[in-house]
Amino acid sequence: MNLVRTRMIPATAASTRRPPAVARVGASARAPDDSPANDLRPLWPPHAWRRELAAAVTDVGELLALVGVAEGAATAATDFPLRVPRPYIARMRHGDAADPLLRQVLPTAREARAVPGYSADPLGERNAAASPGILRKYAGRALVIASGACAVHCRYCFRRHFPYASHRPGAGAPELAAVRADPSVREVILSGGDPLLLTDGHFARLVAAVAAIDHVRTLRIHTRLPVVIPQRVTAALLDTLARTRLRVVVVLHFNHGNEVDDHCARAIAALGRFVLLNQSVLLRGVNDDADVLAMLSERLFDIGVLPYYLHMPDAVAGTAHFDVPETEAVAIHRRLIAVLPGYLVPRLVREIPGAEGKQPLPTAPRPPGSAG
Ligand code: SF4
User: Beta strands 187-191 and 306-311: pairing type?
Assistant: First the structure.
């Protein structure tokens, strides 16, 4: 039975509708397995996202022409080429070279600078591979490199140099052998690349393979696709997630409030029965400002997503120009604590290779009279 509403919108048309009503964050009420219907289904046809993916802009000159910005310091990066979907471009401010969305995707000559302390694998992920396609960084969790590709190429990406070819991304269930063999794994994280770049059928088979491992309780999906191509939230994807026995957590990746538009809101609302969290990266020239981050938190809350992590940028070769010094980051975070309710303040963290988890930065002001 096709439970999807059939009203369609053009895949690239900017919507003027207000966002739909938003489901509660982490709503625990689950539909019975035989009734995955969700009255917040998205309204796009099933292949709209693939058309958007195929139409993504890969030429710097075309991107600049679309946003009405002169070339300046932009460059055609070869090792990590430009890729940006048009629904994301539509949210950039025309004529503004400092637009925070444009800055996240536009390659510049600064990426070619060698900076001491910056390397291809600052997080030691190549040493964290339990087997091809599986990273084991933290106790109880296993990360599956489900895809070696992304819909957007974020210039600051911590995996921009990751050797995806040697991890057989997208190979399917065989890489889960390491998870099957270790009963301590309670949570499987689908990452990449972006796991939602798998087709609906491939994604459903992967989820079923994870669900078939008795000791796994939780499925976490790290994705930026609902941000850059909201049409990716298809009825088939929702059905797969609604029917699995696994508790589903979706970790989105918004960095700026301007990334939230009506299309995103609609896609996120359709995911509203799952736990929805957001992780951001603190980026120079994008969101290194407490007011900008506060606005992001409020917009996330409006669409039913809770801020989770604010990551310090990793020391990845080619990304030094995005760095924000720790003292400045702490000051920004303290300001967030001052202006937002606690549930809208993301944890400011740094990833340190070999550590037992993400390391929180000590940002709470010291009580008066305390030592140090
Ligand atoms: S979507 Fe995530 S993994 Fe892909 S380029 Fe952006 S930051 Fe990197």
Answer: unpaired
Atom of ligand 1 minimally distant from the CA of 191: 3
Cα–Cα distance for residue pair 308/292, rounded to 1 Å: 16
Question: Would the pLDDT of 361 be above 70?
Answer: yes
pTM of this prediction exceeds 0.90: no
Q: Separation of 160 CA from ligand 1 center, angstroms? A: 8
Of 302, 248, 247, 310, the residue nearest 278 (C-alpha): 310
Q: For residue range 83-141, list pLDDT tens digits in order.
A: 999 999 999 999 999 999 999 999 999 998 888 989 888 877 777 677 788 888 899 99
How far lies 169's CA from each of 77, 172, 204, 347, in Å? 23, 8, 15, 30
Domain architecture of the chain: domains with CATH: 48-112+127-360 (3.20.20.70)
Enumerate residues lining ligand 1, CB below 6 A: 150, 152-154, 157, 159, 193-194, 224, 253
Best mutation site among 150, 161, 227 for ligand 1, i.e. most ligand atoms within 8 A of its Cβ?
A: 150
